[in-house]
């Protein structure tokens, strides 16, 4: 019954359906993604946690507090180029003068041959109405993510620390944290707060509070008035804060304070489909990259909801408006009875007040990932189909004689009987050792670039990447040559199908799992890898295979990295240094997905393009090739025309002619031109007295007749 099913499936139309179904999954997945910005698929944001009550309190940060802010800003400007220790000495004086408990923490990280060393300082305001079991963090890095002096941001943190200390309404402790930078400093402090730091490189925190309920970062490097607030919310590895925190800040800023809110650097948003799509795609790219976009990114992996507020533009809003936004936000977080959990942790934002939840956007990534699984199952089933009969041109009498010799087998299925030629019931045995070895080898090969790019010094990274880019171009061809060398038995079409099947199965499995954790990275890799589903061995057409490999090289991870860096005006070395820092310090895992999931699948695809499968019986011709078959029939007189040549030499000559004609026919496909050209070559081999002629029956079977005359 299984043999009959395989035979019927091979010839039935449904047996040809999976490739089209796979392409349909990709098309629907991409179309689904493009539909998300429409009103029918997205919805307005809302606050799920009723206890937050955003914008329901009156803020009092104004008046004399502005003079305090200006005084602190002058002090910060005076300390601008001072050492980290001198800066913290002065900041410690300010915090102690306010009446807060102050502590400091030294840290040191090493990554890409660079040393990141600094000292954090923080102060704790103990809640008059709390029991030190919960806390909120206000962060102001001394230098922001772009390396600029965060003069107004640090001054505002100091001013708010003095202002908050006058109020007795706080039920949660408030921690005021000033870090030396926006990457290593926040990560060291958060790790030490949760006792996951590495000693002695990172000091433990001498003073702690309760569980962190949220964090707000101020990135305010200039001293002029601003127009809008830019909210940065992307975390490491695509993690996001609870949507309620984002909605609370938006509601307070735009609703209560009348300040426009922007995100993903969309400074002018017209709420059109194009702007929504652009905002969504920018958010997906940031989420897919998985790098830290600000100090807030260090908090999110510990389930501490955090965002960064960046004033932007030239307008009439001043530092007091920014302070009132933060005051009202902290008043809302102070109302929480439990950790934020009501709203979404997985979402895509189209603008400040419109989003798409995971239940709506997840099917698009799943459909793209499913196409790999469909093709993997199809190739597995196809590898067990009966061996197709070799196409040969026989005379009518020969065909009749062969058909008479082919026995018929009676097959019963569902009460019906059928006579099927025994040759159609032949099946191929699946030999799994070579396919599993090749796929597993490529998977482990991904550890090489993963290790190299995460452990190479900053100065050598550009050179190492350039060398890798060149080697990566020739790697598929090199592996294919090794696979077909004399040291190992060349793979059969069955084994090449299994290699592709296992590779696509792993890729589909990885991307399906990844879609629930980092949707953006999953669908980006899925779309870029979709051509791998339709690769077929073209070793017998080396020119075409080389062209396709070059086209496939455009979609290689290294090429995408290079093109992406140039598009955004970044240096590849800086991108690799950032990735290495994220790997060593922040726990960034994007590199694992790229080099151990995407890149191995790409390598297998390139190897398959150069594959030259042998027949099951050991011949070197393509058993399942759809290319034209070239057959040469020699008719000779009783008088042997090859004077001085042995019959073995004659056979070698004809074998050479047949293979050469086959290669040229497969590459160029022009029957007439190839035949005229090889008429002269064959005449040369057969001798001056030989005459040649031939004809083409059809494109699939080219039949040459060579007549030799004495």
Automatic annotation (TrEMBL):
InterPro entries: Gaa1
Cellular component GO terms, alphabetical: GPI-anchor transamidase complex
Key words, A-Z: Membrane, Transmembrane, Transmembrane helix
Pfam families, sorted: Gaa1
Signal peptide from the UniProt entry: none
KW Transmembrane helix (keyword) present: yes
Alphabetical GO biological process terms: attachment of GPI anchor to protein
Keyword Kinase in annotation: no
Transmembrane segments: 20-38, 358-381, 432-453, 465-487, 507-531, 543-568, 588-610, 673-691
Protein's name according to its UniProt entry: GPI transamidase component GAA1
Species the sequence originates in: Monilinia laxa
């Amino acid at each position: 019954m299984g043999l009959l099913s395989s035979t019927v499936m091979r010839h039935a139309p449904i047996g040809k359906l999976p490739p089209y179904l796979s392409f349909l999954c990709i098309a629907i997945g991409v179309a689904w993604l493009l539909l998300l910005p429409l009103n029918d698929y997205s919805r307005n944001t809302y606050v799920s946690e009723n206890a937050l009550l955003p914008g329901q309190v009156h803020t009092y940060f104004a008046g004399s507090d502005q003079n305090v802010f200006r005084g602190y800003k002058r002090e910060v400007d005076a300390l601008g180029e001072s050492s980290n220790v001198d800066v913290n000495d002065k900041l410690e004086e300010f915090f102690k003068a306010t009446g807060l408990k102050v502590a400091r923490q030294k840290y040191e990280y090493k990554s890409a041959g660079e040393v990141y060393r600094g000292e954090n300082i923080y102060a704790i305001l103990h809640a008059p109405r709390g029991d030190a079991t919960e806390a909120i963090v206000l962060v102001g890095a001394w230098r922001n993510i772009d390396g600029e002096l965060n003069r107004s941001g640090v001054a505002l943190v100091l001013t708010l620390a003095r202002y908050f200390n006058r109020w007795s309404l706080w039920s949660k402790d408030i921690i005021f944290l000033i870090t030396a930078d926006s990457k290593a400093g926040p990560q060291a402090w958060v790790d030490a707060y949760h006792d996951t730091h590495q000693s002695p490189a990172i000091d433990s925190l001498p003073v702690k509070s309760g569980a962190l309920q949220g964090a707000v970062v101020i990135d305010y490097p200039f001293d002029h008035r601003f127009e809008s607030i830019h909210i940065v919310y992307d975390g490491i590895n695509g993690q996001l804060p609870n949507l309620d925190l984002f909605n609370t800040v938006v509601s307070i800023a735009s609703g209560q304070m009348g300040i426009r809110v922007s995100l993903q650097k969309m400074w002018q948003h017209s709420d059109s489909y194009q702007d929504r799509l652009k905002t969504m795609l920018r958010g997906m790219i940031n989420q897919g990259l998985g790098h830290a976009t600000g100090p807030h990114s260090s908090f999110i992996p510990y389930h501490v909801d955090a965002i960064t507020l960046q004033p932007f533009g030239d307008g009439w809003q001043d530092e007091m408006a920014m302070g009132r936004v933060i005051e009202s936000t902290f008043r809302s977080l102070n109302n929480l009875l439990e950790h934020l959990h009501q709203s979404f942790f997985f979402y895509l934002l189209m603008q400040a007040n419109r989003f798409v939840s995971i239940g709506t956007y997840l099917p698009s990534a799943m459909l793209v990932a499913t196409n790999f699984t469909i093709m993997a199952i199809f190739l597995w089933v196809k590898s067990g189909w009966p061996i197709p009969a070799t196409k040969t041109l026989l005379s009518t009498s020969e065909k009749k004689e062969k058909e008479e010799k082919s026995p018929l087998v009676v097959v019963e299925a569902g009460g019906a009987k059928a006579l099927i030629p025994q040759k159609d019931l032949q099946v191929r045995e699946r030999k799994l050792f070579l396919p599993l070895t090749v796929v597993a080898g490529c998977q482990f090969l991904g550890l090489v670039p993963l290790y190299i790019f995460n452990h190479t010094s900053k100065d050598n990274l550009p050179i190492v990447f350039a060398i890798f880019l060149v080697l990566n171009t020739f790697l598929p061809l090199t592996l294919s040559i090794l696979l077909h060398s004399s040291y190992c038995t060349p793979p059969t079409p069955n084994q090449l199908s299994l290699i592709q099947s296992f590779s696509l199965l792993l890729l589909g499995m990885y991307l399906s799992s990844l879609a629930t954790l980092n949707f953006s990275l999953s669908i980006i890799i899925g779309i870029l890898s979709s051509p791998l589903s339709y690769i077929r061995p073209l070793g017998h057409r080396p020119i075409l295979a080389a062209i396709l490999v070059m086209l496939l090289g455009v979609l290689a991870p290294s090429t995408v990295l290079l093109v992406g860096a140039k598009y955004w005006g970044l240096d590849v070395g800086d991108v690799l240094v950032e990735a290495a820092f994220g790997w060593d310090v922040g726990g960034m895992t994007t590199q694992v997905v790229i080099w151990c999931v995407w890149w191995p699948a790409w390598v297998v695809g390139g190897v398959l393009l150069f594959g030259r499968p042998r027949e099951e019986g050991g011949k070197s011709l393509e058993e399942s090739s759809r290319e034209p078959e070239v057959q040469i029939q020699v008719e000779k007189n009783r008088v042997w025309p090859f004077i001085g040549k042995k019959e073995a030499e004659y056979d070698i000559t004809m074998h050479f002619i047949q293979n050469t004609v086959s290669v040229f026919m497969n590459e160029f496909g022009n029957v007439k031109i190839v035949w005229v050209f090889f008429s002269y070559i064959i005449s040369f081999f057969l001798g001056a007295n030989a005459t040649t002629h031939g004809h083409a029956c059809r494109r699939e079977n080219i039949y040459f007749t060579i007549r030799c005359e004495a």
